[in-house]
Amino acid sequence: MTNSKIQPFLMFTGQAEEAMNLYVSLFGNARVLDIQRYGPGQSGAEGSIMKAVFSIKDLTIMCTDSFVKHDFTLTPSISLFVNCDSEEEIDRLATSLSYEGRIYMPLGDYGFSRKFAWVGDRFGVTWQLNLP
């Protein structure tokens, strides 16, 4: 696992594993570090994610499938900011992460970087993609 004292924690309602697997597939050297699933008789749906930990680009992220119904969801005011290594990477990530999601700022030159995009994926997580 990790010894980091602060980690992003993403709460889903049944899509944690699908989201985590998408993110790990899109980034080089990304991997799932740990998965704990709800078992029989536990609060969450059996087999769903109680807690999982994965890493992308040297960032460790935790996620869960909440069994509690909340009046809130993920919001674009919190996003994951990714410094991309190449134009190919930013183009691929912008396309893949915005698929069935939202584009808040399309790929372009906004004056503060060579290329930038702000997208929301189909799970509600928002990503600021930057090519410095």
CATH topology description of the largest domain: Signal recognition particle alu RNA binding heterodimer, srp9/1
Order of helices and strands: EHEEEEHEEE
Uncertain segments: none
* Distance separating the two termini: 30 Å
Global morphology: elongated
Give the number of domains.
Answer: 2
Q: What CATH architecture of the largest domain would you give?
A: 2-Layer Sandwich
- Beta-strand percentage range: 35-45%
Radius of gyration: 16 Å
Q: For the residues shown, what is the average pLDDT? A: 95
Report the helical percentage.
10-25%
Count the strands?
8
CATH class of the largest domain reads Alpha Beta
Helix count equals 2
Strands of the widest sheet, in order across it, are: 1-4-3-2
